[in-house]
Amino acid sequence: MEKKEGIGFFERYLTLWVALCILAGIAVGQWLPAVPVTLGKLEYANVSIPVAILIWLMIYPMMLKVDFQSVKNVGRRPKGILITGVTNWLIKPFTMFGIAWLFFFVIFKNLIPADLADQYLAGAVLLGAAPCTAMVFVWSYLTKGDAAYTLVQVAVNDLIILVAFAPIVAFLLGVGGVSIPWDTLLLSVVLFVVIPLGAGVITRLWVVKRKGIDYFNNVFVKKFDNLTVGGLLLTLIILFSFQGETILRNPLHILLIAVPLVLQTVLIFFVAYGWAKWWRLPHDVAAPAGMIGASNFFELAVAVAISLFGLQSGAALATVVGVLVEVPVMLMLVRIANNTRRYFKQT
Known about the structure:
Elements: H1 9-12, H2 14-31, H3 34-41, E1 43-44, E2 47-48, H4 49-64, H5 78-107, H6 114-128, H7 135-142, H8 147-175, H9 182-211, H10 213-220, H11 227-249, H12 252-278, H13 283-294, H14 298-309, H15 314-339
Antiparallel strand pairs: 1-2
């Protein structure tokens, strides 16, 4: 019997692993306080060196999968790319800001102190400005999306991240009254986007030239399958060893942060998915277009939140809640996309 591909074991139960890491991190912070104290000293230019290493382990394998050669095919079917670009960069960051501000400063005003609300807003903005670059391949597969076209969407998205992420984050946080150092933000983009992206491109070209594209896709890339999740989980344990006291004092805040994040995810999916239906795009393009905006490049958001605001910040906590809710919400949207396939043109 042929083995069914799709979402892997670690990815399928990512929410469970994140929950266990929360407990493990809190336990380390409470019972082994010397660990976070020691790790807190290992930093350079406000960037935690251990966390930076783990984040590179998360992001580098994702960048390996991006084939920028596919960008040359953009002009062949521009509508799906246009939907992805406009939704991800002209709609998503601003709706995320608006929804998060509404909940943190109005609806939940009496439940969240103003200083923490600022931090949670910052974390939400970082998530909103970082559309998915990796897990979207899984969501595309599960909705029978056009894999080649999804690759084009991701490649274009990564190019936009290079120039748009920092200005959008700085603008929205400025509007929200959250002060951030531009130099640290730009350093974060260089560390966690430019360097791993460049390393991924160079590695891809080198391996393909020596071994061929089949070896790269079917052997080389698969060697890194568990590296991303492992790096993420270790990062979360470290983060929650710093966050333990905050969570123990405010356990309800995890749920309060999750509410606007879930609403934003569902909203953005239907914006892109509905737009694709209106333009009569085939389902194998429409579904991934909805998924890439709804899902987040949460590894980047976590990395930048830690660099800008620190491991103990509410911003870092908010980005991790994004990780916590991502998989179950996206699996729900996958089911919705599959159940509405008949309403779209088929290829």
